[in-house]
Amino acid sequence: MESPTARLGEPARTFLGRTHQLFIGGRFVPAAEGRSLPLIDPSTGAALTEVAHAGEADVDAAVRAARAALAGEWGRMPAAARGLLLASLADLIERNAAELAELEAINAGKPVTINEYMDVPATIEHFRYYSGWPSKLEGATIPVMTPGTLCYTRLEPAGVCAQIIPWNFPLMMAAWKLAPALAAGCTVVLKPAAQTPLTALRLAELTVEAGFPPGVVNVLPGDDRTGAALVAHPDVAKIAFTGSTRAGREIAARAGGDLKRVTLELGGKSPNLILDDADLEAAIAGTFDGVFFNSGQSCVAGSRLYVHRSLHDKVVDGLAAAARDAVVGPALDRSTGYGPLVSAEQYHRVREYVVGGLAAGARLAVGEVPPAEPVDGYYVRPMIFTGVTADMRIVREEIFGPVLVVTPFDDVEDAVRMANDSAYGLAAGVWTTSLSRAHQLAERLRCGMFYINCWASGDPAAPWGGVRHSGIGREMGRANLDAYLEIKTVWTAYGDA
């Protein structure tokens, strides 16, 4: 078997060969308890390296470092200077783009070409977008009723922020969390997913190179217990989490008990509608990419497809042909379009849903049940189910793998009813040549994001998030920036009452 690092460039190979410690107070330090997390290359199933595993003492040290930075140099820094640091970090990410793309590939199983095309550029643009905000955060003068009084507001950082990110877009999710918090003047303790901490640790190195003061950004690889300790720490003022709805509920309950600010970007089971007047070629191509991108490991995957009955067979045939042609392979292979799942745990989770769907009576239009145990990597080819019913788990629950369920409908009212029959509400979309019908559906479907003749479009300026079990608050844009700011009202009596 080829070595997991054989296809890496020299910078990525050098970084991988280092000792990977916790990043606290501007320097790398060992875990207090000496524990470590093993990392696996999803493309081969082989051991990759180990990273330090943060415990409660490390969490406390990181939060104290963040508090000290907030009270010190970072808290006194002019807003424009914060913006320049963010812009400098964006430039450094761009300069090290090839290395970051390779590290993401070997750690997360994401195809290196996709990282080069999307993940790394999106990370750069996120920091650049928020680099322009610090000098634009203005308070307001309030025309109050009391004579001889000046009343105005200040926008101030929320404080120390705990940020917990998932394994499906590790570098990009780090940017989604860090950039707005830093633009607002907060300090951060970032916990990457246990499976995929490498690019977050490399990013920590780049913050030092960019000139961020010690303690502004801290990075703690760890497991769920690390995250729980971070959420529970009394000096954490704001929690931002992206991940499963189950974990989000637990975090929200704890944050509510402590009256901490919280934003949650959670799961989805997003409905995608193809109407009878759709551009069939565009709808098939967009639908395929919308559900199978990143091997289905995306909260916004359009995993429930509702197709007008007159087009059902043509759509399924087109999707099946694309699935058979999909190039599934190692993440560092430049011909790969779809990489492995992130871990053995995720492989078995997806397989369990597939087996359960077949047992419940669903039919596989394309694809096959993965082997009981993965062989040389966690590969699952795209699968499309037909003959499904609304009560099946594969229709109702988020699988987070390359699995699509297809249901025909006869009229739009049926499609709306089925699309809204979900606890989730992250995204929805429609393929149609009628803008009137499209905008009516945009109003009627319960979701945080709606796509018309496209899927999963995004921009740093455009809010991203969902409703119901898909989360609280928004990522990106001014909406996310506001989540890290407190409004302080100042009253001044300057004349006779």
UniProtKB/TrEMBL annotation:
Top-rank lineage group of the source organism: Bacteria
Domain (Aldehyde dehydrogenase) ranges: 29-490
Keyword Glycosyltransferase: no
InterPro entries associated with the record: Ald_DH/histidinol_DH, Ald_DH_C, Ald_DH_CS_CYS, Ald_DH_CS_GLU, Ald_DH_N, Aldehyde_DH_dom
Keywords: Oxidoreductase
Presence of the UniProt keyword Oxidoreductase in the record: yes
A single GO molecular function term of this UniProt record: oxidoreductase activity, acting on the aldehyde or oxo group of donors, NAD or NADP as acceptor
Entries under Gene3D superfamilies matching the protein: Aldehyde Dehydrogenase, Chain A, domain 1, Aldehyde Dehydrogenase, Chain A, domain 2
Signal peptide: none
Positions annotated as active site in the UniProt record: 265
Family indicated by similarity: Belongs to the aldehyde dehydrogenase family.
Name by which UniProt lists this protein: Aldehyde dehydrogenase (NAD+)/phenylacetaldehyde dehydrogenase
Lineage, top ranks: Bacteria, Bacillati, Actinomycetota, Actinomycetes, Micromonosporales
